[in-house]
Amino acid sequence: MNSVAPGFTETEAAVRLIERLAAEAGTDTTTARQGLMNSLGGIPLGRPNRPDEVAELVAFLASDRASSITGSEYVIDGGNIPTV
Fold this sequence. Notes:
- By secondary structure, the protein is mostly helical.
- The protein is built from three helices and two strands.
- The protein has helices spanning 12-25, 29-39, 51-62, and strands at 3-6, 73-76.
């Protein structure tokens, strides 16, 4: 069994949160998004995940092409959690 651990992913709900944060702060969504990413410790990639990126990883792991991959956790977070 494998697992997928996505970081901040810009889903429709996340977009609404960013819009609300921007409105509350009187700023734009780009600034609010960056503030949210900073509050999470930063994302070296410079942007949140896109839902399709997470979905593609899940689809790959569920496919026959990954049939020999077992017992692994895949962190997909744009580098938010430093790993070696």
